[in-house]
Design a protein that fits this description.
Blueprint (H helix, E strand, L loop, with lengths): L2 E8 L1 H4 L8 H12 L3 E8 L5 H12 L8 E7 L7 E2 L2 E2 L3 H16 L4 E4 L7 H21 L3 E2 L2 H5 L2 H9 L7 H13 L1 H6 L2
Parallel strand pairs: 1-2, 1-3, 3-6, 6-7
Antiparallel strand pairs: 4-5
Length: about 200
């Protein structure tokens, strides 16, 4: 089997905050890939509270030691929820800048690695979910322009009862294992992900 090394780069939803199994969705989707015969090394590079500004500043330094020359290195980006958080009445990162950050990161990564992008999930508040949806549309547009597959999870996750049950029982933002399992199921069934793994 080819040795595939994947860096999952993003925020707390990438990291798996709230998951009592500490797998998050990246751990689950890679375990499923392994069960199908893919030799995958997963690096979870999600960091809580980070915006696209923060991720843009760090991602290359973190990827370099993990995706060294000679390996089959790949990147999955997933971010946006913290950009859409209000502080002092303003988004932490304006939507246009968030889009530009996404474009800059994805375009730079494509010079060296295959890339996939997973959009942000919904939020308990309708207005914040609307902000997440706006960013998802912007990221999807960036991905279309760069010919990178984009997975919009916001709509499908909104209808997952377990997600909201776990959010309510936890910190009010993050789900638990069933919620992350729902994201993993979406990614695992995604044709772009399936075809991405040789």
């Amino acid at each position: 089997m080819a040795d595939i090394r994947i860096c999952f780069i993003g925020d707390s939803f990438t990291q798996g905050t709230g998951d009592e199994s500490y797998l998050g969705w990246p751990g689950r989707v890679c375990a499923a890939a392994r069960a199908r015969g893919h030799a995958v090394t997963a690096y979870n590079l999600g960091v809580r509270r980070e915006t696209t500004d923060d991720i843009r500043a760090r991602w290359r330094a973190e990827v370099g030691p993990r995706l060294v020359a000679g390996v089959d290195g790949r990147i999955v980006f997933s971010f946006g929820a913290n950009d859409a958080t209000l502080e002092d009445g303003q988004w932490r990162v304006p939507s246009a800048l968030s889009e530009e950050n996404a474009r800059a990161m994805i375009a730079r990564a494509l010079l060296t690695y295959p890339v996939l992008v997973v959009g942000p999930p919904p939020a308990p508040e309708a207005d914040k979910t609307a902000r997440h949806a706006e960013l998802a549309e912007r990221y999807a547009r960036v991905c279309r322009g760069l010919e990178v597959p984009f997975l919009d999870i916001l709509g499908p996750i909104q209808s997952v009862g377990a997600w909201w049950e776990e959010v309510a029982a936890g910190d009010g933002i993050h789900p638990g294992s069933r919620g992350y399992g729902a994201i993993a199921d979406l990614v695992d069934a995604w044709p772009a992900w399936r075809s991405w793994l040789p």
